[in-house]
Amino acid sequence: GNSVTQMEGPVTLSEEAFLTINCTYTATGYPSLFWYVQYPGEGLQLLLKATKADDKGSNKGFEATYRKETTSFHLEKGSVQVSDSAVYFCAHNLGGGGADGLTFGKGTHLIIQP
Amino acid sequence: GAGVSQSPRYKVAKRGQDVALRCDPISGHVSLFWYQQALGQGPEFLTYFQNEAQLDKSGLPSDRFFAERPEGSVSTLKIQRTQQEDSAVYLCASSLAGAPGNTIYFGEGSWLTVV
User: Looking at chain A, which residue has its C-alpha nearest residue B3?
Assistant: First the structure.
């Protein structure tokens, strides 16, 4: 079936540390891949996306590369800030809801300490 | 408005009550989605509209859940005879058109607590 698996949280890091949040997917087809972020008290926002193999999505210092051979889309950032504290969701667009419908992972709560 | 707007933001319902949750998508957006997000989980797909047509309702958990979008804009998700397991955040999202890789915009959600 179609699913997304991401690392369990919470992930607690110090400011300026390197961040990796792992994400792998299963899909019967060739999905687009997404990272969404949910800041406290706010709705889900698209952070970055990649639509085909070997594409790299990037935004706000975050990046993720679409790896078809390992079915992965790991999120990385070289130096995290306190303001990056949020819940991060990996997703693909195969599953219910036509071409745009998203299948999400369970989310990873990231806590950055000053 | 500039974004997807949902109301009410918070709703407490007694078990057995009916509730209606409203979604105002971004103007001109063809596609509209409803998701359910339980505490500590990722959003789960419920249903999808393209204009006024409900093209996919495979995620609705029971026949107590009903969604409509009669004029292809505002949508309402109705839950009849609410149960405690219905407690969750209900997210509405919209996108411009059904093409792979389109950006989907989410509302802030309606937090439903069934007591």
Answer: A43
